Amino acid sequence: MNHLQREQDKKALILRLKRIEGQLRGLQRLIDEDAPCESVAQQLSAARRALDKAFHSLVGCLIESRLSAKGSAPAEIKQALDILSRYS
């Protein structure tokens, strides 16, 4: 089973998740304050996109570790991560 190997990747993912947590608390506050549905929907969409980015970041780390273990060149790894970033 793979784990996040680099401390900087762990920290970045944790910071991203903390920001998402703040977004979710803000959403709860909007709902408690009877904000218009469109405002709630916009914020839900933003939170969902933020979670997607966190997921893609994690997948990128997985791809990088797998390619590194197989001896792929740094340029090949960068190309794979660029493709993931571009199409996700």
Task: Chart the SSEs and their pairings.
Blueprint: H1 7-32, H2 37-69, H3 74-87
Helix pairs in contact: 1-2, 2-3
Task: Provide structural commentary.
With 88 residues, this protein is mostly helical. It contains 3 helices and no strands. The radius of gyration is 17 Å and the shape is elongated. The mean pLDDT is 90.
Largest sheet: none
Unreliable stretches, pLDDT < 50, 5 or more residues? none
N-to-C CA distance: 24 Å
Our estimate of the beta-strand percent is under 5%
From the spread of the alpha carbons, the general shape counts as elongated
Which structural class should the secondary elements be placed in?
mainly alpha
Q: Rg, please?
A: 17 Å
Tally the helices: 3
Count of distinct strands: 0
Give the mean pLDDT. 90
DSSP helix fraction? over 70%
Task: Note the run of SSEs as H and E.
Answer: HHH
